[in-house]
């Protein structure tokens, strides 16, 4: 039976309306917070999709990890005092680079921002689906980064979050404003990344501890006044622009296996080492003016690292920033 012209027009209008509703619904389901990314393939601005959440309440802010330079031209750094955890990674030529983890609070500015390393792929995976802030990386490791459960952000993919300072030469003058990063406009904070607790019995009274890399030297001196360890680097106090002297509540000397990975080399031909952070090994934990010799263990990339005494008792961290030095065995 043929429909009248008015009825046909009515049905056509209804069909257009239903299609529009369906399209809007699909757009909302795929939306997120407008920071780009969809699935593991990445979004139009090169970032990864937002981290999965626990499904209770509004979505959480993802943890932010910023790669920070620490050669002479980059000091004093900015934003280190706000970090929950600071990793010291071995890089080319025996030098080191820092990975600052922000969860409980964000600094206004962090940097100088430098490039990612193969070590970062496994290291930061223990923080859910974090935002990794860096300034680029070797072509050999970019596929590894893109496949990892990480939201990748560089000055090329999200230039509005970065700026260059005028007091230092390139590449030591690139900074990030963490509040402008993907997901950081959410009201609900990320999961806690450290669990402070009381120290186990025992330990050795320790006033200072030095940790040597081939071309970098760290010293941690206990300050009863600060109730923290004061951090020095290459014989001088390590300072930040926003808070002065850098201190740590806990220092972990984590002995790790170092491999050649994808055999990435810097411009001078020096090999970029890869620190293994999944597995098990020896560790020394400094807290409360004492040192505890024990072990570290991390069964898989998605799990956090735990520290235990030689007798198997868990060693929780103290209140305050945690510094973890990934030292070659």
Give a short synopsis of this structure:
This protein is mainly beta.
Per DSSP E runs of 2 or more residues, the count of β-strands stands at: 22
CATH superfamily of the largest domain: YerB-like
Order of helices and strands: HEEEHEHEEEEEEEEEEEEEEEEEE
Give the CA-CA distance, first to last residue. 84 Å
Number of helices: 3
Number of discrete domains? 2
Helix content: 10-25%
Strand percentage lies at 25-35%
Uncertain runs with pLDDT below 50, 5 residues or more? 1-51
Tell me the CATH architecture of the largest domain: 3-Layer(bba) Sandwich
Enter the CATH topology name of the largest domain.
Answer: YerB-like fold
Please tell me how large the radius of gyration is: 23 Å
> Structural class given helices, strands, pairing?
mainly beta
Oligomer: single chain
CATH class group of the largest domain: Alpha Beta
How is the main sheet built? Answer: 11 strands, mixed
- CA-based shape: globular
Mean pLDDT: 85
Protein name: DUF3048 domain-containing protein
Region (Disordered): 37-61, 181-207
Pfam families: DUF3048, DUF3048_C
Biased composition (Low complexity): 52-61, 196-207
Characteristics:
22 strands; 12% helix; five-stranded antiparallel beta sheet; 2 domains; YerB-like fold; mainly beta; 329 residues; eleven-stranded mixed beta sheet; disordered N terminus
């Amino acid at each position: 039976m043929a429909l009248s012209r008015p009825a046909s027009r009515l049905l056509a209008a209804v069909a257009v309306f239903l299609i529009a509703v369906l399209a809007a619904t699909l757009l909302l389901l795929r939306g997120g917070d407008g920071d780009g990314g969809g699935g593991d393939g990445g979004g139009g601005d090169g970032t990864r999709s937002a981290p999965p959440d626990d499904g209770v309440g509004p979505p959480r802010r993802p943890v932010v990890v910023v790669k920070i330079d620490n050669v002479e031209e980059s000091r004093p750094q900015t934003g280190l005092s706000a970090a929950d955890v600071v990793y010291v990674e071995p890089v080319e030529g025996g030098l080191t680079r820092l990975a600052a983890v922000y969860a409980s609070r964000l600094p206004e500015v962090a940097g100088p921002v430098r490039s990612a390393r193969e070590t970062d792929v496994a290291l930061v995976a223990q923080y859910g689906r974090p935002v990794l802030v860096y300034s680029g990386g070797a072509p050999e490791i970019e596929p590894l980064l893109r496949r990892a459960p990480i939201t990748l952000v560089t000055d090329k993919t999200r230039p509005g979050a970065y700026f260059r300072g005028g007091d230092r030469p390139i590449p030591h003058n690139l900074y990030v404003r963490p509040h402008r990063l993907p997901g950081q406009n959410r009201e609900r904070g990320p999961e806690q990344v450290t669990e402070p607790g009381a120290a186990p019995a025992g330990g050795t009274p320790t006033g200072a501890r030095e940790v040597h890399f081939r071309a970098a030297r760290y010293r941690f001196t206990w300050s009863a006044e600060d109730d923290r360890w004061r951090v020095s680097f290459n014989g001088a106090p390590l300072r930040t622009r926003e808070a002065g002297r850098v201190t740590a509540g806990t220092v972990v000397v984590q002995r790790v296996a170092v491999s050649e990975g994808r055999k990435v080399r810097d411009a001078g031909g020096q090999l970029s080492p890869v620190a293994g952070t999944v597995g098990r090994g020896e560790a020394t934990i400094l807290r409360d003016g004492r040192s505890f010799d024990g072990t570290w263990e991390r069964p898989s990339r998605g799990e956090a690292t735990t520290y235990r005494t030689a007798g198997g008792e868990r060693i929780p961290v103290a209140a305050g920033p945690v510094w973890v030095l990934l030292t070659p065995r």
